[in-house]
Amino acid sequence: MSTGTPGAPGLAAYVRDWRPEERTATAAIGPAPAAALAGLLDRAGDAPADGDPLPPLWQWLYFLDWPAQSELGPDGHPRDGHFLPPVPDRTRMFAGGRLVVAEPLRVGAAAVRTSAVAGVKVKEGRTGELLFVTVRHEFRQDGELRVTEEQDLVYRSGGGGAARHEPRRDEPSSAAPWLLRLEADPVLLFRFSALTANAHRIHYDLPYARDEEGYPDLVVHGPLLAVLMAELPRRHAPGRRLARLGYRFRRPVFAAEPVLVTGVPGGEAVRLAVADAAGTVRAEAEAEFA
User: What is the DSSP letter of 129?
Assistant: First the structure.
C-alpha cells in the first residue's frame, strides 16, 4: 500500500470521513453551446434548436464550473472542489461512465442537476494505489427525471502513471459499418477544452504535457472520445433514440494520431470503439436503443 511517498498513509485514510453533501444546480439548456459543439464536429447544420432533444452527453456543455484563476493548481485543475477527494498532490483520470436517458433533455428550457458521490473505493494499480470515485448526476426538466449519468474518476497521490506508449502515425482501417475518422489537432483540443471548461494543461500545453506529466504529445479528451462514439448512432440511425450508454477509456489518444471511431449495430444495441491502426482499442462503449 503506497501513495507514492514513503511512510505516507494509504489513500483510504484521506477519504475515510469524506462524505460530501449532495449538490443541486440549475442551468439554461440554451442553443448556443450546442451550436458551438456542432461546429466543432463539422456538423453546423445539425445543431439542435429550441425544442429539439439534446444529443447524448451534450449535457457536458452546461452546468460548467469556472473557478477563479487563483484557485487552479499547476496542472490547470482546481486545487479544491466539493467532489474532489482530499488527497495530497492529487492527479485525476476520467475512467468512464454510464448514461441512462428516460427522455432527452430539451434545448431552450432550464434543467436542474442533482449531484452526489455514489461510491468511493481504493484499489492497487500497477504503479500504486488508486482511488476510484463515482459521481452520479440526475438531470430534471419540468420536475421529471430525464437523464441519469455516472462518472468514474480515478485519483492517485503524486506523479507518475502517464502513458508511455508512443503515438501511432500509420493510417487505421476497419470493416465496421459505421466509421468516423479522428485526427485531433491542437485547435480542436483547445476548442473542446473551452466548451467544457476543462483547463487541464495536458490538452493544450505541449511542454507541460510532455515535461511535467510524461506524455509524448497533447492528450485527446476522454469526453471527446465518448461524444464521438455517441455520435455514430445519432448519425447512422437518426430515427432511433439512445436509452443507455456505457463507456470506458482504455489508453490515451494523442494529437495528430489517426484513429477510427467504429460502430457495429446489432438488434437493439451497438458496439462502439476507438481504435488505432494496430487495432488497439483506446476507448469502447455499448449503447442500447429505446
Answer: E
Q: Which pLDDT score is estimated for 124?
A: 85
CB contact set of 190 (below 8 Å; sequence gap of 6+)? 203, 204
The residue ranges of DSSP E strands in 66-158, in sequence order, are 90-101, 110-125, 128-141, 144-157
Residue 159 confidence (pLDDT) above 80: no
Residues ≥6 apart with Cβ < 8 Å to 239 = none
Q: How many Cβ atoms from other residues are within 10 Å of residue 190's Cβ?
A: 14
Contact criterion met (CB below 8 Å) for 249 and 284: no
Residue 173 backbone class (left: φ over 0; alpha: ψ -120 to 50; beta: rest): beta
Q: Please say if the pLDDT value at position 158 is more than 90.
A: no
Share of the chain above pLDDT 70, in %: 95
- Cα 74 from Cα 141, distance rounded (Å): 37
For the segment 234-252, the average pLDDT, to the nearest whole number, is 96
CA contacts within 13 A on the Cβ side of 261: 24
CA atoms lying within 13 Å on the CB side of residue 95: 14
Mean pLDDT of 268-288: 96
- Per-residue confidence (pLDDT) for residue 161, from 0 to 100: 57
DSSP string, 165-228: PPPP-SPP----SEEEEE---HHHHHHHHHHTT---GGGT-HHHHHHTS--SSPBPPHHHHHHH
- Rounded Cα distance, 145 and 100, in Å: 10
Amino acid 134 reads T
How far apart, in whole angstroms, are the C-alpha atoms of residue 149 and residue 181? Answer: 27
> Cell triple for residue 19?
462524505
- Confidence (pTM): 0.93
Residue 147's pLDDT band, with cuts at 50, 70 and 90, is very high
